[in-house]
TrEMBL record:
Keyword set includes Membrane: yes
Keyword Transmembrane helix tagged: yes
Record InterPro entries: Cyt_P450, Cyt_P450_CS, Cyt_P450_E_grp-I, Cyt_P450_sf
TM annotation in the entry: 16-33
GO molecular function, one term: iron ion binding
Coiled coil: none
Protein origin, superkingdom: Eukaryota
The protein's name: Cytochrome P450
Cofactor(s) needed: heme
Pfam families: p450
Keywords: Heme, Iron, Membrane, Metal-binding, Monooxygenase, Oxidoreductase, Transmembrane, Transmembrane helix
Family, similarity comment: Belongs to the cytochrome P450 family.
PANTHER family reported in the protein's UniProt record: THROMBOXANE-A SYNTHASE
Amino acid sequence: MGLFFTFLSGFKATDYLTALFTFIFLYVIHFYYKHFTRINPLPGPLPIPLIGSFEIFKNDIDAWFYRLNKQYKHDGVFELNIAGNRQVVITRADYVEKFLASNSSSINHIMRTANNGLLDLFDLETKGVGLNHSYQHWKFNRHIFSQAIMPLSSTDKPSKYVNSLFEEMSSYWMNLKKPDEDSITMDISTWMRRFTSDFIALISTGKQLNTIQHFYRKTINEEVTEEMIDTENFIEAINVFVSDNQTLFVPKVLRNFPFIKSRVDSMLDNCRYFYGRLVELIRKKRKELEIADYKVDPKEMDLITSLIVANTKYDPHPQKYSDPSLMRPMTDDEIRGVMFDAFVAGTDTTVNTFCFALYYLAHNPHIKKKLVEEIETVFKDDLNRPVTYEDLDNLKYVEAVVKETSRIRPTVSMVSRFSSKPDEVAGYKWPSNVLFILYVRGINNNPLYWKDPEKFEPERFLDPKLTENHPKNSFSMFGGGPRMCLGRKVAIIELKTLLTLVYRKYDVELVDMQAPLDVETSTITICKELNVRLIPRVRTA
Ligand code: HEM
């Protein structure tokens, strides 16, 4: 060791600088050598060593993808480098079939990302569904979660919950309306974030979190209670995770770098808090079930109860599987993992889709008129009764509005798949470990499949000839294949019921018609703010 220091002491400061510059120079040469000799070079911006592109420091990565896709003339495939990682971006419907086919049993593209980040540190590597990186754990969790959530969508529970939450929220809005004014002005995205959290809480536990109520009380400056702080913290924890989840993919070697360490630590605190709240909900539910001796009407089961009793002697629908690994009950930690997914994947996605719909409807009054006409046709004179599960079948235009909103501005604008084996994709042969980005917004807006793609036109989804002639995968909202969204049916019920209730009771105008959508994209496109004027409808009948 002494000899080593004697050796170092022989160097001057300029020698260290020279060594540093030589290292950087060699790194840059190596980086570009690798770049220019890469397999299957595709069109794409010239990457900058280490960061890939300065675009990663902006808040809307989707805007960059959209621009590049236009620049490359929707050609079907281009490439990017993000933080040193090559990404192959696919923008044609026929190229994504391999990943999204409903009968796809191939496990080659089952993972969404490489596992070289911090998933294990956040206890997400083997937990939950969305980010799970262990095939066996993902399969087990997805199977149990799917059995718990899918049957809910054929009951009237989701629409009942939306009705009751809307009634509550709407009564707060009416209280906020000043007697001398004919409308209420608000950032509707903040209300809706609370609405969807209360909705998922109801679906999960049968009980409300009261986040809407607490937000209302905060808005009217009521004294802040512990309970109010708790629910606002809960909403904040979801927001933080959704808008900064890139932190999970920071390469392990960078974890302790000064700026990165504080960001990772703060995300860890956020997740610990969030997990703690979820575990509280699960333990509470377990206790209630124990007291009731697990006697629950199977038709009344909430999500957490279904997850707790799955594969136990209390399971009302016991099943046998050829794969014995699917037959064990879930631990509380595993339930916490999938509940985390339900809150993270199931709240913001619906809020954003809802807000985008409001934005596009306000900019297209003739479409809003048709939507209101359909609502009035279905509800005739009875405009206060709950929207039922049966009504949803008759609200075809409302559904077309939801789909058209998701076509033109999908909240999940990109879906990723990581290959574990060599494969042929988009006409090229690829080695294993390639990250493919299926650029949903690019495909949904590709002029090859959609006439005037930037025009908001829900009729596209009503004309059977049009939809039949469309190539497969030219529209996707919920992804596809083995990793397709598990909440898709519940989400459609929630969105249709909510849009109907809102437009039945209010006209919605934007405060600033000139303002573009205020969005940012990390993994999903988030509506940061949407200022609207709600004008209660005055019925003459
Ligand atoms: C408008 C609302 C929603 C949209 C647009 C949406 C969209 C998506 C998309 C695109 C994916 C990725 C699919 C793929 O990789 O092929 C996904 C996954 C997922 N979604 Fe949704 N989602 C919505 C609502 C919900 C809700 C309400 C829940 C649950 C309550 C939910 C739970 C999930 C889960 C658990 C996954 C991960 C599935 C897996 O990795 O196996 N989503 N969603």
